[in-house]
What does this fold into?
Amino acid sequence: MVNQWRYLGHYKAKEYNQSPETIKKYHQHRPIEEVDGILFLSARDDFEITVSNRSYPDPETRKKTELTAISFVTSHYESRGYSVKDCQKDNCGYDLLGKKKNKFLKLEVKDTSGKKPRFFLTKMNG
It folds into this structure.
């Protein structure tokens, strides 16, 4: 569902796995040759995830979901006193830069419709 966001907590990278077996197991609908590895995350807080639709959304819905996620994270950090700069077009490795006094946060924003909090990292050309 688009625009149905709630803050679930902070995550940390648990494992990055590039084994062919793991990629084959989790690549789902993505072309296997485009997946460089699987990044598994673990939550720092306990929470429950409810998934209402397991199908992969169409491109228009994915774009709306991405924009909503960026807006949600921006609002979240601005409400905590950070100024937030959108860096998506800068190709710098993160989506948002949060600044509060001398503290900087490089924020990579991800959204998923899957039951498990994991994301696919694609291979970079060149």
In short: The mean pLDDT is 77.
